[in-house]
Amino acid sequence: MLEIKNLRAKVGDREILKGINLTVKPGEVHAIMGPNGSGKSTLAQVLAGRDTYEVTGGEATYEGKDLLDMDPEERAREGLFLAFQYPVEIPGVSTTYLLRAGLNAARKHQGLEELDAMDFLSLVKEKARLVEMDESLMNRSVNEGFSGGEKKRNEIFQMAVLQPKLAILDETDSGLDIDALKIVAQGVNKLRGADRAIIVVTHYQRLLNYIVPDKVHVLYEGRIVKSGGKELALELEDKGYSWIEEKVANA
Amino acid sequence: MSTSTKTIQDLTEQEYKYGFVTDIESETVPRGLSEATIRLISEKKAEPDFMLEWRLKAYRHWLTMVEPTWHNVHYPPIDYQNIIYYSAPKQKTAPKSLEEVDPELLKTYAKLGIPLAEQKMLAGVAVDAVFDSVSVATTFKAKLAELGIIFCSFSEAVLDHPDLIRKYLGSVVPYSDNFFATLNSAVFSDGSFVYIPKGVRCPMELSTYFRINAMDTGQFERTLIIADEGAHVSYLEGCTAPIRDTNQLHAAVVELVTLNDATIKYSTVQNWYPGDKDGKGGIYNFVTKRGRCLGANSKISWTQVETGSAITWKYPSCILQGDNSIGEFYSVAVTNNYQQADTGTKMIHIGKNTRSTIVTKGISAGHGQNTYRGLVKILKGAANARNYSQCDSLLIGDKCGAHTFPYIEVKNSTSRLEHEASTSKIGEDQIFYCRQRGISTEDAVNMIVNGFCKEVFRELPMEFAVEAQKLLGVSLEGSVG
Fold it and tell me: Which of A48, A117, B63, B446 is the most exposed place for a label (fewest CB within 10 A)?
C-alpha cells in the first residue's frame, strides 16, 4: 500500500529526514517511535503533502502511484488521512460542514455520487457513536474552544467519517489523560480492518498498550534505526531512548 | 512556487465579470462644474424652481468646503473640473413603457443578470434601473400604485410628488452635510424614490440597479425612501461599472425616513469595478447614507456587502429619534489587491429606550486596507439606550491591513454599551488542514470566509445572500498563496 524508499526532506537548510525506508501493507498497524526531534512529525507531514518541507530525494509510492507528485487534497481524496498533532481551529465552519465538503470531494474524485444531507447526517451520527463523540461538538466550529482531548477525539471522528485507506496518527496520545487515551484508542481499534493500514506516530509506549501494532520502528536522527514486532516498544519503554542512541553511536 | 500559489494566480487573472461597455449614444453636458452646469442639469430635467434653488444653495456652500482628509484612504487629488456631471443615453422621448426602452439598454441589464421585462422577472422584486445619470426603467410600477406605493425615479418624483420631496429632501442628510454629500446635492441627476403609505407592507422587494457606463462621468444619484406610519419595506441596491484605467467618482446620497411603527430594511451589494490587480482604475465610492427613525417604535436596518470599488468611504447611519426605535448595521467589506475601504456606521441615540446593533466583518487580502470607523452617541435624553457592537477583521496574507476606530460618546448614565472586536488570520495551517480533508485551497478559503461572514449574510434577503456569497468568492480569488 505504501512504499517509502530513501526519503529525504529538509526545512530551510536543515535536513530532517535522511533516508527513510518503510513498507506498509493493507491491514497492518505500524508504530513509529522516537525521541523528540527525530523527524516523526516531519515524516507524517511530508506524507500528507505539507509544503513547508522540501523533499530532496527518494520516493514514496502509494497504491502504485507517486505520492509525492500529488497535491495534499488529492492524497486525501485517494484515501490518505492525517490525524494532526495540533488540530487547528476554524471559526465559523462546523465540523460537519468541513467533513461533508471533504467526503463529497473524495466521492466525486472516485466517480461516486455525492451524499445528500440526509444520508450524510445518518453517517456522521453513526460514526459519532463509534468514537463516543458528543454530537453537539460536531455542529460547533471546528475545534474552536475544544479541550485537548476533544480535539484529538474530533480527529478520530473525522477519520471514521472519511474512512481512509491509510491513516497516519501523529502523536494522537499527547496531552490526553488515561481515560481519553482509552476512548481514542478504542475508536482507532474499531477502525482497524483488512483494507486499512494505520501508522501510529508516538513518543510513548503507553498508547501501544491499547493500539497493538504489528510492527514497530524506531526513528532516530532522520533514519529508521531499528524495526521489530510489538515487543520492541516494550523494550524501548524499559531501556529508554538512550539505549538506541548508544547503539547508533557504537555502530 | 507551490501548486496552491499557482492555482490562485491563475484565478486572480480572472476578469471582472461586469466590465463591458455598452455602445450607446449619450447626451452629456460639458466637462466641469459651475452654476451654469447645475442650471443645465436642472433645465434638462425641467425641474421646478425650488429644486434649482436647493441645488444652487448646495453648490455655493460646496465652494466654501474642503475635501476631508481624516479618513484612512489615500488617493491622488480629484480634479472636479475634469468630470462630466451628466450623461444620459439618448432617447427621443421618455420611454412610457418597457417596449420603448432602447434594446441596447435592455440587453445591458440582461447581461448583468437584471432582466427588466416584467414577465421574466423573478417574482417579488421590482427594479428601478439607473444608467449613468438617469433612470431608464422602473418595473412593476402600476401594480405597486394600486397599494398607494410610489416607486419611481427621483426625477419623476420631483415632478409628480413635489410636496413629498420638499418635505423630506435633505431632512436626513442636509445639503450642507459633508463635502461629497453637498456636491451630490448640487449635481445629483437621478436615483430612486419610494413612498410607502400608512399601514402598507410592501408586497415585494424593491430594488435599484446602478450602472456606470460612460467614460469620465461621475455618478451622483440620490435615493429617498419614506415609510409612513406602520409601513414596511425591504429595499435592495446593486452596482456595477465597466473596466477602465482611470478612476471614476461615485458620490451618492441615500436618505431614509421612518414614521411611527415603520420599518425600512436596506440591503446593498456593492460591486463597482475595483481596479486591476496593480491598483489601476476603479471607482471612488464616496457615499453618504443615513436614516432617521423619526417615529416611535420604528426601525431602520442597513445590510451591506462591499466587495467592489477602488475606494469605499461610507457610513450608513441611524438617527434614533423616536422612542423605542431600533437601528441596525450589518456589514461585510472586502478589500483585495490595492482596494481601500473606510467604512462603518453612526448610531445616534436621541429617544428613550432606543437600541442599536452593529456587526461588521472586514476582510483584507492582497495589499488591501480595511478600516472600520464607527460612532455610538448617546444623547442626554436617551434613557435606557442600548448598543451592541461587534467588529471582526480577517486577514488573508501578510501585506494587507485591518484598522478599527470605534468612537463612543455617552451623555446618559442609564445607557448600556457593549463592544467586542477580534482580528484573525487565515493561516497556512487552516488551509492545509482543509486540504488534508480533501478540500481545495479555493474552497477552503471560501468556506472560512463565508463562515466568518455568516452573521451578516443571514440578514440579506435569500437570493441576495446567494449572490453575495458567490461575489465574495470571486473577489477573493487569488488572495492566498
Answer: A117
Confirm if A155 and A147 have CB atoms less than 8 A apart: no
Does residue B231 contact residue B262 with C-beta atoms inside 8 Å?
Answer: yes
Into how many domains does chain A fold?
1
**Maximum pairwise Cα distance, chain B:** 68
Torsion of CA A86, A90, A94, A96, to 10 degrees: -50
Structural domain includes residue B392: yes
Out of B437, B450, B451, whose CB is closest to A158? Answer: B437
Angle CA B198–B204–B207, to nearest 5: 100
Averaged over A87-93, what is the pLDDT?
91
Residue A218, by phi and psi: left (phi above 0), alpha (psi -120 to 50) or beta? beta
ipTM of the shown complex = 0.96
pLDDT at B105: 64
Burial of B335 (0-12, 13-18, 19+ CB in 10 A): buried
Please tell me the distance from the alpha carbon of residue A230 to that of residue A211, in angstroms, as a whole number: 10
Q: How far is the C-alpha of B232 from the C-alpha of B74, rounded, in Å?
A: 39
Asked whether residue B481 is assigned to any structural domain, the reply reads: no
Contacts of A99 in chain B (CB under 8 A): 437
Return the HEC string of chain A.
CEEEEEEEEEECCEEEEEEEEEEECCCCEEEEECCCCCCHHHHHHHHHCCCCCEEEEEEEEECCEEHHHCCHHHHHHCCEEEECCCCCCEEEEEHHHHHHHHHHHHHHHCCCCCCCHHHHHHHHHHHHHHCCCCHHHHCCEECCCCCHHHHHHHHHHHHHHHCCCEEEEECCCCCCCHHHHHHHHHHHHHCCECCEEEEEEECCCCHHHHCCCCEEEEEECCEEEEEECCHHHHHHHHHCHHHHHHHHHHC
Instruction: Indicate the pLDDT class of residue A139, thresholds 50, 70 and 90.
Output: confident
H-run or E-run covering B140 = none
Q: Do A97 and B447 touch (CB under 8 A)?
A: yes
pLDDT in tens, B426-475: 888 999 999 999 999 988 988 888 888 888 888 887 767 777 777 777 77
Higher pLDDT, B171 or B397: B171
In this structure, what CATH number is given to the domain that contains residue A140?
3.40.50.300
Nearest residue, CB atoms, B438 vs list A91, A106, A142: A106
Distance from CA of B447 to the nearest CA of A (A): 7
Question: How far is it, in rounded angstroms, from Cα B277 to Cα B223?
Answer: 32
Using 50, 70 and 90 to split pLDDT, how confident is the model at B13? very low
Tell me the residue range of the domain where A111 lies: 2-250
Domain range for residue B281? 3-476
Closest CA to B205 of B252, B264, B142: B264
C-alpha A27/C-alpha A102 separation (Å) is 24
DSSP structure string for B183-251: HHHHH--B-EEEEE-TT-B-SSEEEEEEE--STTB-B-BEEEEEE-TT-EEEEEEEEE----SSEEEE-
Bridge partners (DSSP) of residue B227 are: B196, B258
Q: Cα dihedral sign for A238, A241, A242, A244?
A: positive
In contact, A211 and A173? CB cutoff 8 Å? no
Per-residue pLDDT at A215 exceeds 70? yes
Cell numbers standing for residue B6: 499557482
Among the listed residues A94, A40, A49, the one whose alpha carbon sits nearest the alpha carbon of residue A68 = A49
* pLDDT tier at B112, thresholds 50, 70, 90: low
The total number of structural domains in chain B stands at 1
Q: Is B451 on the interface with A (CB under 8 A)?
A: yes
| Residue B26 maps to a domain | yes
State how far the Cα of B327 lies from the Cα of B299, in Å rounded to an integer. Answer: 6
Instruction: State whether B436 and A88 contact (CB < 8 Å).
Output: no
B188 inside 8 A of chain A by CB: no
